[in-house]
Amino acid sequence: MKLELFEPAMCCETGICGPSFDKNLIEIANIFNQLKSSESVQANRYNLSQSPQAFVENGVAIDLIHKNGKKILPITIVNGEVVKTGAYPSPKEFQEYTGINFSNMSHENL
């Protein structure tokens, strides 16, 4: 299965650089690190400043941005289908998409 996350412009690929960290982005980075070891899931993150070509090449993501503006970001796409826009998926939602258990991850544990 293929999971793609199209994110707003950030200072680096993960968004967890700089003087203060967004707990959501730390959680997302941890989830994607776990997904890298999965043989059943191809997971990719693209942020607008680091990977603009990925947005252009993905017709769904660029169309949503053209119609709704950048407020539609982040966009989560699973196997070509948009499953969430405007917010990052929770660990439970990532589990629903991938079948991988992320229940031990929560904002409180970060």
CATH architecture: 3-Layer(aba) Sandwich
Q: Helix proportion of residues, in percent?
A: 25-40%
Structural class: alpha+beta
The Cα radius of gyration reads 13 Å
* Biggest sheet descriptor: 4 strands, mixed
Number of domains: 1
What is the number of E strands? 4
- Name of the CATH superfamily: Glutaredoxin
Description:
InterPro entries: Arsenical-R_ArsD. This is Arsenite efflux transporter metallochaperone ArsD. It comes from Facklamia lactis. The chain has about 110 residues and is α+β, with helices and mostly antiparallel strands. The chain has one domain (about 1-110): Glutaredoxin (3-Layer(aba) Sandwich), CATH 3.40.30. About 35% of the residues lie in helices and about 20% in strands. It contains 4 helices and 4 strands. It has helices at about 25-35, 50-55, 60-70, 90-100, and strands at about 1-5, 40-45, 75-80, 80-85. The protein has a 4-stranded mixed β-sheet with strand order 2-1-3-4. The longest helix is centred in the N-terminal third of the chain and has 14 residues, at about 25-35. It is globular and about 35 Å long. The chain starts with a strand and ends in a 12-residue tail after the last helix.
